Amino acid sequence: MRLVLTALAAAAAIASPALAGEGRFEGRGGIVWSGGNSEAIAGVAAGYDWDMGDAAFVGVELSGDKVLEDNTRVSLGVGARAGAKLGEAGKLYVASSYQTKPCKLCEDSVSLGAGYQHSFGGNLYGKVEYRRFFVGNGVKDFNAATAGLGVKF
C-alpha cells in the first residue's frame, strides 16, 4: 500500500501542465491462478499517463476486476505505472496497485507486474499484462495474465 501511495504521490508531483499526457479507458479479460486452481477474470480500468520526455512516461490507474466465479465481488484497485515509450506505438512498463478484497472472506492485496501496450492507430490500443498479487495473512499469493482493448483520449 505504501509503495502504491508513494508512486501516486510521485506521479502527481512530477506531472505539470507543461507535460503532455493522455487519458485511457479499457476493458480486459484473462486468467487468475494460484496453486493448481485457475479462474477467468474480467474488468475495466481508467488511467492517465504523463510523458516524461521522448522516451519515458508515468501514470496512474483506477480499476475494477472480477473473478468470474460464484461468491466473488468486484475488486477495486488504485495503482501506478512507469515505463519506456518504444517508438510511436509501444509502451513497455512496470505497474503496481493496491486491490480490495475479491470476496467476503478474502484479503486485500498489493500487485507488482509488467506489461506492453501497443497503439493500433488513432485512439485504439491493445495491451497484455502479467501481475503477481501479494496477499499476506497466511493466504497464498496469486497471479494474473490479462489482455485488454482500450481507447485513449
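(ticket continues) Second input and output from the same batch:
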Amino acid sequence: MSLYEQRSRRVMVRYKYDKINIQTKLDKCKFMLGIGDLHDVFYMKTVLKKKALQKQAFVLEMEHEQEVYIPDDLSCEMYPKSFRYYDPIIQITNQLFSVK
C-alpha cells in the first residue's frame, strides 16, 4: 500500500479509535505519575504501563505509515553508546518487520 493510496473507512475509523484509546490511557498514566502520590508497586506498574502504551502507540503509527516520533521514554539517548545496541526502537522494528 502506498502512502497516497486511499484506505477504507473501516481501517481509518479503527486507527483513530485505537489512537484515541491509547492516548487517553497514556494521559491517565502521566497524570497519576505527575501527582506523585504513588508508592512502591503501584508506581512501578504505572511506569511499566506508560512504557507499554508508548510502545503500542509507536507500533500503531508505524503500521499505518504515519510519521513517527520516538518518545523520550523509549529513546536511549540518555544512556552511554555501549547501550545503544539494545535500543528498544531497533528491537520493536525488527520484531515488527522480521521475515517469517
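Agent notes: Residues 29 and 45 are 10 Å apart (CA to CA). The chain has a mean pLDDT of 80. Closing as not reproducible unless the customer responds.
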